[in-house]
Structures are given as structure tokens and as C-alpha cells.
Amino acid sequence: MGDSRLEPLVLSEAERLMLQGWATRRTTAQGLAKRARIVLACAQDWSNTAVAARLDTDRSTVRRWRTRVLRDRLDGLSDDPRPGVPRTITDAQVEEVVVRTLEETPERAAHWSKRELARRVGISPTSVLRIWHAFGLQPWRTETFKVSPDPLLIDKIRDVVGLYLAPPANAAVFAVDEKPQIQALERTAPVLPMVPGTPERRSFDYVRHGTVDLFAALNTATGKVIGKLSARHRAVDFRDFLDEIDRQTGPGLAIHVICDNLSTHKAPVVHRWLVAHPHVQLHFTPTYSSRINQVERWFAELERRCLERGVFCSLDDLKTALENWIKVWNTSAKPFKWTKTADQIIDRVCRYCDRISGPAH
Question: Element (H or E) spanning 218, and its range?
């Protein structure tokens, strides 16, 4: 059925309240919450295409849940029964596993283990694990987050993402940051190489031979990196690195530098340098939003492929390794592909804020 011939989806007040509860309640399973948001949007006379774009899903998914609700009302939002051996676990036990996981913690523990919860509910640990997988629950995991309080959050997102998706003509765009305090670590025993059946082994303790800071500027169009090692990362060091970027950029090009809100990036010595170099412009990412700076993706590659398993017997060894790795990277550099629009990022932030601030009843 095309969008132009959609049957109107009309909800009763009771159905609307139930769906709004599912969509906003923090303890609702993610799948059911998304289905509820789809149905609520369909009830506003939006087309399947508009709902799919708004909720970052595909049109076939929207069409499926619209059709199911028109046919079966809210019962249509549950998953179809699967063929096979009859279930031995009741709906009440499934609900108890989910509710206890989301709303309770066991005595003398920070979260449920599958064995502890299995004993409490009266089912097998394997069944608990299957229920967790079905509802996307991972009580053993935790992540850190910080919603940016930057009053210019939206403006900065649009500014930075605009440079990625539509860079200005006759200009070079660099994602810039510092990786401070990179340690030259030497293991106290020789590294034992990998052999069949046994991974590489290294001693857990090490000797420190000092640290170095790395300034890096990722050209977002080519993927090549300008690097500069420094004993410190003061404002004058950042100014000197801007000089290096300017020196290595072709004449006649404007330079746009994306960086974070570190105080050294806004110091008077940097401001005076910018006034003397009007073709260079700084663009600041929102606070607590380092992921929007593409050079962080390059730092992750540096950490994984050069530093994480490196053994450096001196600070000079570390510096040489960093310089050589940047040279090797630049010989086959490719730009990182940025796909998210500013609107998609902002909508995701808004949906997340709505979810974590909603009622937890």
C-alpha cells in the first residue's frame, strides 16, 4: 500500500496513554518503546516515509507496525509466536526476570548474575540469559556518558558537521587535538612471541621512561596527519602547532581548524596569532563532545596499532615510533567517512534526553 492510500490510524485515549507510557518509561524494553513511538507518530496522520525519517528507521518497519495495530490493536505490538518446542517458561517468569533486572539489585551485589536471578525466579541460568538477550539487557555492563550543557550545542554541531559534509571551497579543514602524557613503557621481562595455541605474553609490570605530548591535525579531505611532538601542551605549544599547520598547507588556502574547548586553545597568545593570520579560523566542538572531532578516531587507531602493545626502552624510542607510524599512515592515508547530518545528531540527543528524563514508573 503506498503512502497516499494509507488507512487512518485512530487511537483511543486509553491506547494513547498506554503507548505514551511504553515510549517514555525508562524500564521499557527498547524494541517495544520504538514500536510505541512508531504507532504514536502514525496516529498523527504522518506518512510511513515521514515516520521512518523522523525515527531513523526504514519504511517497511513502520508499515509492519501500522498494519499490525490496525488489525490487532495494541496486541499487535507483541512478537509473533515462533514454531518449535512448547514454552516451559511462563510470561509471568519472563516479566519477573525483566522487572527484577531493571528495578532491583540483589543483596551484597551491584547487579544480578544469571545464576542469582535464576535461583530467585526458579528457572535455569541459560533461560535468564536468553531473556536478557531477547530484551537487550546486559546488567554486567556499564558505560559513562555526559550530556553536553553547552548553550551553543546546536550551533556548534551544525558548524562542525557542516565542515565535514560541505567543506568550503579553496580551504583545508583540519581536525586537531592533543594526546597528552604518552608514556614510554618498557616491560620488565622480554615479550614472549605468539606460538600455535598460545598468545603473545608480556609481563604485567613495566618501567616508565618519561612521557611526550602529541599534537595531531587530521586533514579531513585526505586523511593525512600533521604531527608534532612536544614536552608540554601549553598555549604557546598550540600556537606553534598552528604555525606548523599553516606552513604545511598550500598557499592561498583558507584553513579551518576544529578543536575542543581547552583553555590553551583560547589563550591570548593564540588569539594574537589568529589576528595576525586571518586566513586561519578555529571552530570549537561542544563541551563533552569529543566524538564529533574526527581526529579522535585517528587517535584510536594510533593507540590500537602503535601504542597499546608497544615496548619503548627510552623516550627517544617512543618518539621515533610515533614519527615513523605517522609517516606510514600518510603513505596510504584515506579520509574517514562522515555520514551523520547535524539534524540526525541533534534528534538523537533529543530522543536520548527524553528517554533518560522520562517518568520511571
Answer: strand 206-219
